[in-house]
Records
---
Amino acid sequence: MSDHHTPADDSPIDDSPIDDSAADGRFVVDANPANSAVNIAAAVRSGARSATEVVEQYLARIAEAEPAIHAFNLVMVEQARAAAAAVDAKVAAGEDPGPLAGVPVALKDNMCTRGVETTCSSRMLEGWKPPYDATVVERLADAGAVIVGKTNLDEFAMGSSTENSAFGPTRNPHDPTRVPGGSSGGSAAAVAAGFAPVSFGSDTGGSIRQPASLCGVVGVKPTYGAVSRYGLIAFASSLDQIGPFANTVADTALALSVIGGHDRRDSTSIPEPFPPVLDHLGEGVEGLRIGIVEELSGHGLDGFQPEVLARSAEAADALSAAGAKVDSVSVPSTIAGLSAYYMIAPAEASSNLARYDGVRYGLREDGPNTASMMAASRTAGFGDEVKRRIMLGTYALSAGYWDAFYGRAQRVRTLMINEFEQVFNDYDLLLSPTSPCVAFPFEAKADPLTMYLNDICTIPSNLTGHPAISVPFGTNSAGLPIGIQVLAPLRGEVAMYRAAQALEEVAS
Amino acid sequence: MSTTVDPTAPTGPSALAESSVVAEPSVLPDGWELVIGLEVHAELATATKMFSPARNEFGGEPNTNVHPVDLGLPGTLPVVNAKAVELSIRVGLALNCTVQRCIWARKNYFYPDMPKDYQISQYEEPLNIDGWLELPSGSTVGIERAHMEEDTGKSTHVGVSGRIHDAGYSLVDYNRAGVPLIEIVTRPDLRGPEQAKEYVEELRSILVAIGASDGKMEEGSMRVDANVSVRPIGADELRTRCEVKNVNSLRSIGRAIIYEGRRHVDLYESGDAPIQETRHWDEEGGRTRSGRSKEEAEDYRYFPDPDLVPIDPSPEWIAEIKASLPVLPQQRRAALVAAGGTAAAVAIAVARDLDTLALAAIEAGADAERVLTHVANNLAVDGAADLNPAHLAELVSMETSGALSATQVKQVLAEMVSTGGSPTDIAAASGFEAMDTAELETLLDQIIADHPDEWQRFVEGEAKLQGVFVGQIMKSTKGQADGRVVNELLQVKKRS
Amino acid sequence: MANDDVADDGPPDPQLTRDDVAKVAQLALLNLNDDELDRFTGQLSAVLDRARELQAFDVSGVAPTAQPYPLVNVFRPDEPDTVSAVREEALAAAPACEDGQFRVPPALGEQP
C-alpha cells in the first residue's frame, strides 16, 4: 500500500463543478489539481471525499458533454455507482480501499470487461460480452478504481484518428471539428474533456501517445511486457501495450504502478514488478544526457509542422536549462520504422483477427458452408481499414513474399534495436515531437499512407519495445495542443518520468 | 544336453506375426518399390492442455473442458505447460534425437474446429531433430523431427436424412482443442506395409514405456498419417508423394499403403502420374479418396508466434530427464539377443513383457532357445510374468534331460503358472516320474508278446504299425512314456 | 523461409496486381466487390512501394526479432484450473448452438 503513497497537493479540496466549455465551443477542462487521481485517491482514502460523490461529479460531466464529444461506446452508469458504493463501504469499515480508491477511470473498448460489452468499435463484436476480465481490469478494480465506461477507438485499434470506428468518430475537445487522434481517441478525449481523471488505451504504433499529443494530455506506452496483455484484444502481439492517459504526469505514474508488473497469464510479461517510478518523480534532470533524434526533428523526415518543431526545440532548451546535457543525435533506422511496422503489424494482425469467423462469438452472416459463412461474416463485420491491414499482412506472410516482406522487416527491426542500444550507451533519454502535426480536421487524411505518416515518431519504440511518454508542451497559434515525446531504454521508466515531470513543470 | 525340438509344438512366430515379420514380400507389381514416411500424432499424458489449465481428459460432455484460451476468445493468451515440454523431451531422447532450443510457430488456416483459426505448432527450430528408431526386425528408421503442437476441436457432421439436397450442418466441440500433441515424423525409410505397422507398434510401445502417451489408436490418442510414393527398384529418387489420412488402425495402415502404392504404379504405368495431394482412407470401400478439390498446396503462412517465447532446455534438465528414462524395448531386445535369442523370438518375448523372466531363466542356466520357445508357445497366458525364473530353468533342464516328456512339460508348466509350484514338486505330485528305460523296455516286451503278428509284420517292414505299439505303450503308461525313448527302443528291438 | 544465410533476395514483385489482391482476399476469407478490389489495389500498392525502402538495408547475418523483450522458458505448472471454465457464458454468446456444441454450416473439404 505505502508504495503508492504520493504526497497530495496542498490546495484545498474543491468540490465545485468542473470548469465548463469555453465560448468558442471547446470542451476542454482546466486541470483542477483537486481533480487529479492522486488527490482524489488520497481524499477518498482519508474519508475527506466519498467515492460516490466523486463519481456523481464525473457522471454529470459526462451526461452534459459526452453527446458532443462521443468519447464513449458505453457509459457504465450503474456499475460505476455500485463500484463507488463498494469503495465507500470499505472505507467505512476501516478496510484498505486501494491506491486508486474512488478514482473514475475509462477503458478503451478493446479491454475485456466481464459481462460488459467489449466491441473494439467494430460491428464484428457489437454486443459481445466477454466472460472474463482483462488482468488490467482486475488490478484496477482491486485498487478501488471506478470504471465509468468503455471508450471509442479506431476499429480493432487500427488507425490514427478514431475515424475508423464503426460507431462514429470521437471529437477533439480542443476543437470538435478535428480528430482526437487514434487509435485510443476516445480515452484521450475522455481525459481532455474531464470525463475521468485517468483513462487507459493501447499503443501499437503510437495509439496512446499520438492522441495524447493531439488532445493535450499525458499518455504513456510502457516497456513492452511491463503491463499484461491478457484480456487486451490483440492487434499486433509483439507491439501492443496498455498504458494510461491523465492530465498529470504523476497520475500516469500512479496508474502504471497499479496495473504494471508480472502476470503469469501473459507469456511475454516481464517477470519483475513495475519500476518504482513514483519514488523518483521529482528528482529532476540534472546530469541526464538527452539526445534529440535528428531524423524525427525535421532533419530526415518530411511532414513536420513548423510550430511542432518549434515547441520541440523549446522543450529541449527547457531540459537543458533544468540541468540536462542536451544535444542532437542521429538514429538513421528510425526512417525505416514506418515501412517495417506496416509489414509486421498487419502480418500479426492478419493472424490475430483470423479468429473472427462467426463460429463461436461475434457477428455471423449465414452461408451454405462454413467457408462462405466465415467470409460473409468477416466481410460484413470488418471495416475498410481492418480489411486493408488483414490483406497487407496476409500478403506479407504468403509463400514467395515472406522473406522479402515480413522476414526482412523483422530483420530491419533487429538493426533498429541494435542501433538504439548503441545510442542508449551515449544517452540516457531521447527526445522528439510525439506527432509531426497537430489535430487535423475530419477526413483530411483519407489516403491511408498519409494517415500512416502520423505515427512516424512513435512507431520506432513499438518496434524496439522501449518505453515512451508524451507530455503536453504548449500549443500552436490556433491553440491546438502539441506533445513532446521522451524515450527511455528498456525498463528505463524511472529516468523517463524524471524528464517528463521536468517538462510538465516548465509547460505549466 | 541335446536341444531337440518338440515335434508337436508349432514353430515360427505366433500371434504377433504381423508386427515382427522380418522380410515382407513385395505388394507392388514387378520392378517397383514403396517409399513410405509416417507422421504420428500422439496426445501427451498431461493433466492439463498445452496452453491452458483446462483438463486434458477423454470423453466428457461437449465444451466442458474449455478455458477462454481454448475457445480462442478475444484477448486470451497461451502459456506453455511445463509437463508437456518434459514429456516431449522424453520422447525426443527415447528416439535418440538432438534436443535443441526451439520456438513456436503459427500455422494459419480457417476451419471451424480451430478456435483461433491458426494452430500453434513448431515449424522452424522444433524441439527434437535427427533421431532414429530400431525396429524389432532389425532395420532402423530415421526420425526427422518430433515437435510439439496443440490439438484441434472436433466437429461432427449432422446429416438430415431423407432429403437429398440437405447438406445438414456440423456441431463443434472444443474439449479436444488445445490438448498437447507430439508429432513424430520419420524420414521416408520404410519400404512396406508390414514394416510400417512394425514401426507404429514399436513407437507406441516406446511412448507407453516412457509414460509420454497412452497410445490408444482406438481412442484417437495416437493417429497415423502415411506419406506414400513409389519408385523403380534401385532408383534413389523421391517421386511425388501423397499423404493418406484417416488410417485408424494397424490393419488400415497396411491396407491403405498397399492400395495407395498400387494406385501410383497404375498411374505411372499408364503414362500418367499421381498429383501431390492429401487423400483419405475409406475403410469400407478399401480405397483412398482425394481430399481436396484444389491442386495448390495450402499456404499456411507460418511465422514465429509473438505471444510465446523460445524454449531453451538446459543441458542439466535434459540430462535429468535422460537419466529418468526406463529401459526401452530396443534395449530389452538387445539384452536377450546377447543372451542367445534370435531376433524373431526375442521380439515376441519383449512384446509380451516376458523378457525379464526369460533373461533370468537363461542366466540361471536354461537353454535360451528352449526358454524363448516356451515364451512364444506356452506362456501367452495371465500370470506368466510371475513365474519363478529358477523354476522355469529347472523345468527346461528336466525337459532337455528327458526326465519329462513333451506332453508332461506342457502340463507341468501350465500348473506352475497357476499354482506357482516348482516343477519337481508338481511332477512328483502328478506321478510324472521319469519312466525308467528298463521299465519301459519290460512293458514293451510285454506288448510285443501280446501282439506277435503285428510285431512280425512291423519287423518285416510295415512301418506304419509302429503307431500300434506306441499307442499301446502310451495307453498303458497313461501317456507318461517319453515318445522319443519309445521310438528308439522300438527301433533297437526291431533290428535285434 | 527465414534463413540468416540465404543470399539477399531481390526486390519483391514491383507491381501488386488486382489479381494478387483478389487471391489474398480469398486467403483471408474477405469478399471484395470490383470497386473495392480497384481501390484496395491502389492503396496497398502505395504501402508496398514504400516498403521497398527496406531492401536498402544490409541484413546479412542479422536474425529476425520476434519479440522486443527477450525472455525464454516461460512455463506454467500442469495443474487444472476449473474456476475459469466458461461453458455457459461461451455457449450463450454463440451465434448458434445445439446440445452444448457450436453449430455451423457443413464444411466443404476435410480438415487440412
---
Amino acid sequence: MHIDPLERKWVLVSLGMCALFVSIIMIDALFHGVNAPSNVETIDSRKIHLSEEFGEDNLGVQVAENGEITVRMVAGRYAFFPKEITIPAETKITFRWVSMDVLHGVHMPMTNMSTMIVPGYVSQVESSFPRPGEYPMLCNEYCGLGHDHMWSKVSVIDKEEWDASRAASKTVTSDTIDEEQNNE
Amino acid sequence: MNDSTAKNLALSHMWVAFSAFILACFMGEYQVLERSGLFDSLSSPSVYFASVSTHGVLMAFVLTTFFIMGFGYYTASHSLKVPVWNPKLAWFGFGLALTGVVMAAIPLLTGLASVLYTFYPPVQAHVAFYIGATLLVIGSWVWCAIMVVMFYQWKQANPGKTVPLAMFATTANAFLWLWTSTGVALEVLFQLIPWALGWMDTLDPGLARTLFAWTLHPIVYFWLIPAYTAFYVFVPKQAGAYLFSEEAARMAFIVLVVFSLPIGFHHLYMDPEQAKGWKLLHGLGTFIVTLPTLVTGFTVIASLEIAGRLRGGKGLFGWIGTLPWGNPMVLSVILSLLMLIFGGFGGIVNASYAMNAMIHNTAWVPGHFHLIFAGTTIIMYFAIAYYLWPVLVKKPLFSKSLALVQLWTWFIGMSIMTTPWHVLGLLGQPRRISSVQYNNLLTLSWEPYELLMILGGLVLLGSACLFFYLLIKTQFSASTEPFEGIVEYAEPLHEVKDLPEYLNDFKLWNKVIGVLMLISFGIPILQFFFMDTYGSSGWGY
Amino acid sequence: MKHLFLLTALIIPSFVSAKPASNMVWMPETLNFVENGNVQKGEQLAQSCASCHGEKGISAMGMFPSLAGQTANYTYKQLRDYADGKRDNPMMNSVAQGLSDQDSADLAAWFQSLPAAQNKASTQDVSKAELMVNQGNGKKILPPCFTCHGASGKGKRMDTPALAGQQSEYTVNTLMAYKKGTRHNDIYSRMRVIAKQLSDDEIKQLGELYQQMK
C-alpha cells in the first residue's frame, strides 16, 4: 500500500504534537494533582434541607480544627445559598455543592472554580484564589426561565486580613468566656 | 440508469433540511438581538428559550440528519451505479423522520419544550417532544440500514473490487450513526419517555447525562463526515487535479469513526457523576481523534497544491493564488479549512482535561461549535448543494457569482460572530443566558462583543437568505434549454493497488469499536446500577 | 454550664444540628399521594373552612387568603407545616393538627379544582411591582417573580404557589412576615432572602398587582 513519504512525515509530526499535549496533561494529572473534579458521591437531593451536612445552618464557610476551609453551598432556583461568602486568598478551599432541584452549573469567571451540580450528587472541587477581590459566582447551565438571574457573590480577602479577623473573633470569644467565668 | 428515485429522495430530504435551516437562521438573529439587551421590546426569557430550543433542534438534528440522508441516497446510487435499494422503505424512513420533526416542532414552537437541544433532565418537556425526537432517529436508522445493505450488495456483486471512496465514506458514516445514536436512544427510550408519560416517577440525571455524552461527541463527526467526503471526492476534481492519496482518505475515515465514539466524557469533565480516571481516558481518546483531521488537512491541501501548480503556480505559496477561487466547491474548501484551523484549536482547548474548567459552559462553547459546525461543516453543505442541485433539477446553477458572494459572506459573518463569542467566554460570560443581569463590573467588558455578534449574525442571516434564494431560483427558473449536470469524482494521484481489506470493509472496525466502547463506557454506565443513586422527579421551567 | 454552651456555639459551629425550615420532602410517593387527593371528600371537609376562606375558596376578608385555584402541593405543604409547627398561626395550627395527611391531600385537591378569584384592576400605581415581577433586580440579585410563580401567577412545580387573584392584604402580610422572619417555612430562607430586599412600597404594590392578575 502506497503512502507518500511526505505524508508519512506529517503523520509523525501530528503524532508528536498529540503526544506532547497528552504528556503535559498526564504529567500534570499524575504528578501535580491537576485534575478534573473527581469526587463521585451520591446524596438524596430531595432531603438535603433535612440533612446534617447541607442543613441551612451548616452552609457557607467553615474552618476545621486543622485550618482546612470547606465551603458548603446549595444551588436551587434561582440562587446559590448563601448568597454572599467571604474566603481568604492564596488558600486551598474545598467547595461542596448540591442541588435542591434541577441541573445547575457554577463558575467563578476566570478561575478554575467550575463544576456542574447534578441532583443526586455532591460536587466537590478544590480551588485557591491568588488575587483578592469581589468575584461573582454565576450559574452556567440552563435551569429554567430565571437562569439569567442566578448568581452570588464571593469576597476574596487578603490572607493576612482573614487570619487577623479570625484571631480577633477568637480573642473576643475567650474574653467573653473569661468574663462570664468571673461573673459566675 | 434511471436514477430519478435517488434524485427525488435527495431533493426531498434536502428541502426539509434547508427549510429547517432558514427558519432557524431567523431565530438565531432574534436570539443575538434579544441577548444584547439593546432592544427592550424583544426582551423575554420565555420566547428566547423557546427560540434557542427550536433553533438548536432544527440546526443540530433536522438540517444535519436530512441533508446527510439525502446526500447519502444520491451518493450511494450514483457512485455504485445502482438504483436505491427498497425505495418504499426509504420513503417510509423519510416519512417517519418528518413526522417526528413535526411532532417535536409543535411543543417547541408553543413553548412546551423549552429544554434546549440537549434536553437534560430533570427539567421536563412535553412528552410529544421526546417521542418526536425518537421518530426522527428511528427514521434515520432506516437510512443507515439501506446504506449498509447497498454497500454489502455491491461488494457481493463485485468481489475483490474496491468500493468507490464516496460510498465507503457514506457507509462509514452510516455505521457511525448507528453506534452514536444508541446512547441518546437508550436515554430517551428507557428514561425520558417513560418519565414524561408518568410510567416512571423518577430518573437519575447522572445516568441521563452519561448516556447523552455517549452521543454528543460522535454526532459532530456524523455531521462532519459528509464535508470531509466532499473534500476528498469532489474538491480535487473541481480544482482540476487529483486526490493526493486515497489510502490516507480511507484511513482518515476509519480512525474518525472508531475514535469519535469512546470519548464523550470530555463533555462531562466538570460533572460529579464520573471520576477522573475515566475523564482522563476519554481525554486521551479525544487527542487521538485529532489525527484524522490533521491527516485530512494534509491530504486535501496537498491535492490543492498539485492543482495550483498544474495551473502555473510557482514558489512556496504561488499555487494558492492560481487555484480556481471562482469554483464554489474550491472556494468552500479554502474557507472551510481556514475555519477549521481556529475551530480545531478551540476544540483542543476544550479537550484539555482540567483546563476545561476555564471555559466549561461559558460562551466560548457555543462560539466554538458555531465556528466548527456552522462554519467548517455547513459551508461544505452549501458547496455540495450548489454542486448537486443542477444535477438533481436538470437546470444550471442560477448564478455562480452570487453563490461565491454567499460563500464569502457566510465565512465573513461567521468570523465576525464567533470571534467575539469566544472572547466573551474567556471573559467569563456563561452560556444559555437570555440577558445580562449580573450586577458586576465584569459585564461591562462584554458589551462591545455583543454588538459585534449582532453584526456578524446579520451578515449570516443575509447569506443564509441568499443561499435559499439561489436554490429556489435554480430549481424554479424557467429553463431555456435542456441541461444535464454531471457529478464527477476525483481520481487518485497514485492508482490504488493492493488495498488491504480493512480499508475496504467495516467488519473489523465494528468489532474494534465494540471493544473500545465497552472499555470506555462499560463501567461508567454500569456504576449507576451498583451505586445508591437517588432519582429526580420532573421539574418545569 | 452557660459558658460551656457559649464555647460550643461560637467556636465549633458545625456541630449545631440542622433545623430545617420545613419537614416536607417531595418524594414521588408524596407527590402521587397529593395528586390522588379526593376532590369530593375535600369539598365536604372544606365546609368548615368557608367561614374564613369563603364559600368557593374565595375569601371576602383581606387578611384571610383565598385558596381557590391554589396548587395542591402548596396547600398540602402549608397544612402539614401548620400541623408540625413549622408555620405559626394559632388558628391554623390547631385546625391543621386536626387534619390527617389524607384530609390535607383531599382539601388540597378540592381547592385546586376551584376557579381562582377574578378581581378588578387596581387603581393604584403598580409600576415598581411590575418591574419586580417581570425583570427582577440585578443589583439585589433578585430574579423576576414570574420565573418561579409563573407568567400569569399560577404557580409552578414543585411547590411554588399561585399568587394571581390573591387578597392584596394577605400577600402584603405574607411578604412582611417573610421580611421580618416571622414566617420561616421556606427552605433555605429562599423567600425570606428575597423579601428582606424588597421595600415596603414594593411589597404594597406587589399585593395590588397580584390581586388583579388573572
